[in-house]
Write a structure and sequence with these properties.
Layout: E1 9-13, H1 20-31, E2 35-36, H2 44-51, H3 58-74, E3 80-83, H4 89-98, E4 103-108, H5 111-120, H6 131-137, E5 147-151, H7 156-168
Parallel strand pairs: 1-3, 1-4, 2-3, 4-5
């Protein structure tokens, strides 16, 4: 498998259950850059809220997004992959404010497929009960946002290959 090297910092985004934690490390390996798990940036209070089935507020998310943005800023020009739901335009704007060169890989799929995958995963704090709130919050990438949408049907390797191919068409990152 050919490894690509990229100076992009890629944010793998999407609703819970799209495979950010599976695709992120695979994508990072293919790109030859480090991976950071977005969930690891959440403060303990956020994890507790989500575990209890309580959706996060924007105020809950700001420190989390700022921590991800700081990591992405530190990887500018070096490349990296980080996962983050980044469901709203305002969240992506906040990430871009910290790291202007970030690009987004939006993992997309049908609600039925995503719910099925969520119901089979173990050891994750996000219950399927929050999936409706995730879809209600989701604002897909807009035309002026640098990124690509990648369908999550298929194997992780197929999804990763689609992401790599889509990223090839993006312009060089802003430094």
């Amino acid at each position: 498998m050919q490894q690509l090297h990229t100076p992009h910092v890629v944010v793998v985004m999407g609703v819970a259950g799209t495979g950010k934690t599976t695709i992120g490390p695979l994508l990072a390996a293919r790109l030859g850059v480090p991976y950071a798990e977005g969930d690891d940036f959440h403060p303990p209070a956020n994890i507790a809220r989500m575990t209890a089935g309580t959706p996060l507020t924007d105020e809950d998310r700001w420190p989390w997004l700022d921590a991800i943005g700081d990591w992405a800023h530190g990887r500018a020009g070096l490349g990296g992959v980080v996962s983050s739901s980044a469901l709203k335009r305002s969240y992506r704007d906040r990430l871009r404010a910290a790291a202007p060169g970030v690009v987004f890989v939006h993992l997309t799929g049908s609600r039925e497929l995503i719910e099925d995958r969520m119901s089979h995963r173990e050891g994750h704090f996000m219950p399927t009960a929050l999936l409706d709130s995730q879809f209600a919050t989701l604002q897909p990438l807009e035309a002026d946002e640098t990124g690509v949408a990648v369908d999550v049907a298929g194997t992780p390797e197929e999804i990763t290959a689609r992401a790599v191919n889509a990223l090839k068409d993006l312009p060089e990152p802003v430094r």
